Amino acid sequence: MAVGRGCGNWMFATPIAYPSSLLDEPWRTLYGINPMAGVVEGFRWALLGTETAPGPIILVSALVAVGLPISGAFYFRRMEKTFADWQL
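The chain above was modelled as a monomer; its predicted structure follows.
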């Protein structure tokens, strides 16, 4: 149930039904933390010809998309020793 709710919230947080241009600038950059926001805005700009290029959103989304797996790998390596199914 929590996964379904989380996916629903993430879908709402991705700007598919509405453009991110409705947000003010400080919120728009924070909004770009969602890695899919940059992808959707980039496609909207390329295919629909919106007036502004989604530069900051793509940059923030790319940094999050690269940083999340790297930080997850470091966290996994640090916590791997405490897993219940870990054996020598």
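Residues 13-81 form one domain.
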